[in-house]
Design brief:
Oligomer: heterodimer
Order of helices and strands of chain A: HHHEHHEEEH
CATH superfamily of the largest domain in chain A: Glutaredoxin
CATH architecture of the largest domain in chain B: 3-Layer(aba) Sandwich
Strand content of chain B: 5-15%
Number of helices of chain B: 18
Number of domains of chain A: 2
Shape of chain B: globular
Strand content of chain A: 5-15%
Strand order of the largest sheet of chain A: 2-1-3-4
Helix content of chain A: 40-55%
CATH class of the largest domain in chain A: Alpha Beta
Largest interface: A-B, 36 and 51 residues
Order of helices and strands of chain B: HHHHEHHEHEHEHHEEHEEHEHHHHHH
CATH class of the largest domain in chain B: Alpha Beta
Structural class of chain A: alpha+beta
Strand order of the largest sheet of chain B: 6-5-9-7-8
Radius of gyration of chain B: 22 Å
CATH architecture of the largest domain in chain A: 3-Layer(aba) Sandwich
Shape of chain A: elongated
Distance between the termini of chain B: 44 Å
Largest sheet of chain A: 4 strands, mixed
CATH superfamily of the largest domain in chain B: NADH-ubiquinone oxidoreductase 51kDa subunit
Structural class of chain B: alpha/beta
Radius of gyration of chain A: 16 Å
Number of domains of chain B: 3
Distance between the termini of chain A: 38 Å
Chain lengths: 143, 431
C-alpha cells in the first residue's frame, strides 16, 4: 500500500501516464480508494497545485511563462502567436487534442526568455519564426 | 566572479564520484565525521557566519543549533529545492552540475543535528533535475556514503526525493512541510517553527540548496578561511541569477560586497544595444525595484538593510525603459494573486484589490485616492500576512511608489510615458 503522504507523487505519475495530461474523475476515485484518502482531499490537492489538471489537456501541453523576466521580454506576444498558430485561445485544447495552451509561473529559464515549457522540454529565445518551426516539428513528431 | 561554491559545476561529469572527489568532494564530510563532534560542526558553521541563501538570510548555524537542542529520537532535514522565485535559476545549476555537493551538505547537516531521514523537495518544473538526484542518491548508497554506517562510522542516514507540483508558496518552510505530508501547500501558523515542530510534528531543519552546498566547503576550508571571501558583515559568496536587458544573462558566483553596477557592466557585459536601464529588481518578484541612481549599492546584508531591502534569492532582473511601471507591477501582483494559498485574508484579498486598482491606472481611470488606497493595502499585507509570500508580495509596489512616484501620478493625469497603456480618457504620451 502506498503511503498517504505519497498523494502528490501518485497524482503526478497518473497524470504523466495519461495521454491528455490530466487526472480523470475515475482516476481520482481510484487514487482515493488505493491510498485511503477521502475523495474530497484528493480533489483538494489536485486542484491546489498548478501542474495538476482534472481537465483533459493536449498531447502537448504548451505552458507559456508569464512571470517577470519573460513578461518584460514580451510573453503576451508569445501567447498571441501561439494562439494564432494553433487556432485556439489560452486555456483551450485543439480539436485533434494534440495541443493545449496555458500560462505558467516561472520555469527557471529566465536567461533564455521568453520561454515555454512543452511537456518536459523547455524552449527559449522565442519569436514568431521559432514558434512556427516548433509547432510544425511537434505536429510531425506526434504522428 | 569567483568559483567557490560552484567550483565543480560544469567542470565535472555530475554523476561521477571519482571526478567529484578529485575536486575536493567528501573532504568536508570526512573531516566532520572522522574528526568532529556534532557540536563542533555546528560551532564551525556558526563561526562561518553563513546565512540562508534561499531568501530570508537566517543565520544557518543558529537554525542548526535550534534543531540540535531538541531532544527527540526522530528529526528530519529537508533540502528546499523548490526554486520558484521568478528570475531565480541558480539552484538548478547546483542540482544539475554537482548534486553530490548538495547531498554532502545534507549528510553533514544530518550528522550535526541528529537527523536520521532527509528529504529533497524539488519543484515539479524540474523533472530532469529530479532524475539526476535520484541517480546520485543511488550511487551514494552503493558507495556506502548514504544509508547504514556512512563511511564506516556509527551514523546512519538516508534521503528521499519528493516532487512539488507547481506551487510557489511551497518554497515557504511550513507550506513545503505540508506538501511533503501530502497536503495542499498552505503555510502554517507560527510558532511553533519547524526546528521545534516540523515534518510530522518532529523537529525539522529546512535549508536551501545553495546553503547546503556551502557546508562541505566550510568544513573543508574551515570557517576562518571561508570568511576571507565576502565582507565583514556578509561572509562568503552568492550565486546570482541575472536576466532581463543585459548582454550576458545567466548564473554567476560573486563575492559579497560586489555592487549592482559591477555585476551589470563587468560581469554581464552591460545593457543590450539601444536600450536604457530603468530599474533593477533585486531578489525576484518579491524583491525591491531600485532606480539607476542606486546601482552603486553593494550586495551586502548590512548595506541592503540600510536601504530597508533584502537580497532575497539573489535574482537580478534588469528592466529597460520600454517597460511601464504600473503595468509591470500589475503583472507581478497577478503572479502573487495566482500563487497565494488563500489561507490568510491580507494576502488573498490584498493582491486581488491591488490588481483591480492598478487596472484603473493602466486604463487612465485612477485618482489620487487610488494611490493612497494601494499604499494602505500594501502596508496591511506587509504587516499582517501569515507568511513571507503575502508579506513580500507588495514589495515591488511599495518600492516603485517610493522611487517612481511621478509615473503613477502621470497615469492619474492620463498619460503613460512608455505608451504601453491604452488610456480610456486622456491621451497616452506616445499615442
Amino acid at each position: 500500500m502506498i503511503g498517504k503522504d505519497k498523494l502528490i507523487e501518485t497524482l503526478i505519475n497518473v497524470q504523466k501516464n495519461s495521454k491528455g495530461h490530466y487526472i480523470s474523475e475515475d482516476k481520482l476515485e481510484e487514487i482515493s480508494k488505493e491510498l485511503g484518502v477521502s475523495l474530497s482531499k484528493v480533489h483538494g490537492v489536485a486542484s491546489f497545485y498548478s501542474m495538476l489538471s482534472t481537465k483533459e489537456r493536449g498531447e502537448y501541453v504548451v505552458q507559456i511563462c508569464n512571470s517577470g523576466p519573460c513578461y518584460i521580454q514580451g510573453a503576451n506576444n508569445i501567447a498571441t502567436i501561439f494562439e494564432e498558430e494553433l487556432g485556439i485561445k489560452m486555456g483551450e485544447v485543439t480539436e485533434d487534442k494534440k495541443f493545449s495552451l496555458e500560462f505558467t509561473s516561472c520555469i527557471g529559464a529566465c536567461d533564455i526568455a521568453p520561454a515555454v515549457k512543452i511537456n518536459n522540454e523547455v524552449y527559449g529565445g522565442l519569436n514568431k519564426e521559432k514558434i512556427r518551426e516548433l509547432v510544425e516539428m511537434l505536429r510531425k513528431e506526434g504522428n | 566572479m569567483v568559483n567557490l561554491i560552484s567550483r565543480a559545476c560544469g567542470k565535472i561529469s555530475p554523476l561521477s564520484i571519482k571526478e567529484y572527489k578529485n575536486n575536493g568532494g567528501f573532504k568536508g564530510l570526512e573531516k566532520a565525521l572522522f574528526n568532529m563532534t556534532p557540536k563542533e560542526v555546528i560551532d564551525e558553521v556558526t563561526k562561518s557566519s553563513l546565512r540562508g541563501r534561499g531568501g530570508a538570510a537566517f543565520p544557518t548555524g543558529l537554525k542548526w543549533k535550534f534543531v540540535a537542542m531538541e531532544e527527540k529520537d526522530e528529526k528530519y532535514i529537508i533540502c528546499n529545492a523548490d526554486e520558484g522565485e521568478p528570475g531565480t535559476f541558480k539552484d538548478k545549476i547546483l542540482l544539475d552540475g554537482c548534486p553530490f555537493q548538495v547531498i554532502e551538505g545534507m549528510i553533514i547537516g544530518a550528522y550535526a543535528i541528529g537527523a536520521t531521514k532527509g528529504y529533497i523537495y524539488i519543484r515539479g518544473e524540474y523533472p530532469k533535475s529530479k532524475e539526476i538526484l535520484v541517480k546520485a542518491l543511488n550511487i551514494l548508497r552503493e558507495e556506502g556514503i548514504l544509508g547504514n554506517n556512512i563511511i564506516g562510522q556509527n551514523f546512519s542516514f538516508d534521503i528521499e526525493v519528493r516532487s512539488g507540483a507547481g506551487a510557489y508558496v511551497c518554497g515557504e518552510e511550513t507550506a513545503l512541510i505540508e506538501s511533503i505530508e501530502g497536503n495542499p501547500g498552505r503555510s502554517r501558523f507560527k510558532p511553533p517553527y519547524p526546528p521545534n515542530k516540523g515534518l510530522w510534528g518532529k523537529p525539522t531543519l529546512v535549508n536551501n540548496v545553495e546553503t547546503l552546498a556551502n557546508i562541505p566547503i566550510i568544513m573543508e576550508l574551515g570557517a576562518d578561511e571561508y570568511k576571507n571571501y565576502g565582507t565583514d558583515s556578509s561572509a562568503g559568496t552568492k550565486l546570482i541569477s541575472v536576466s532581463g536587458s543585459v548582454v550576458n544573462k545567466g548564473v554567476y558566483e560573486i563575492e559579497f560586497g560586489t555592487s549592482l553596477k559591477e555585476i551589470i557592466y563587468d560581469v554581464c557585459g552591460g545593457i543590450e544595444e539601444n536600450k536604457k536601464i530603468k530599474f533593477v529588481q533585486l531578489g525576484g518578484s518579491s524583491g525591491a525595484c531600485l532606480p539607476e541612481e542606486l546601482l552603486d549599492t553593494k550586495l551586502d546584508f548590512d548595506e541592503l538593510s540600510k536601504l530597508n531591502i533584502g537580497l532575497g534569492s539573489g535574482a537580478i532582473l534588469v528592466v529597460d525603459d520600454s517597460i511601464c511601471i504600473p503595468d509591470f507591477v500589475k503583472n507581478t501582483t497577478k503572479f502573487f494573486d495566482h500563487e497565494s494559498c488563500g489561507k490568510c485574508t491580507p494576502c488573498r484579498e490584498g493582491n486581488r484589490h491591488i490588481i483591480k486598482i492598478l487596472n484603473k491606472f493602466t486604463e487612465g481611470e485612477a485618482t489620487e485616492r487610488d494611490l493612497e488606497l494601494i499604499k494602505e493595502i500594501s502596508n496591511v499585507m506587509k504587516e499582517a500576512s501569515l507568511c513571507g509570500l503575502g508579506q513580500a508580495a507588495p514589495t515591488a509596489l511599495i518600492t516603485t511608489i517610493k522611487y517612481f512616484k511621478e509615473e503613477y501620478e502621470d497615469h492619474i493625469n492620463g498619460s503613460c510615458e512608455v505608451g504601453k497603456c491604452k488610456m480610456k480618457k486622456g491621451v497616452a504620451a506616445n499615442a
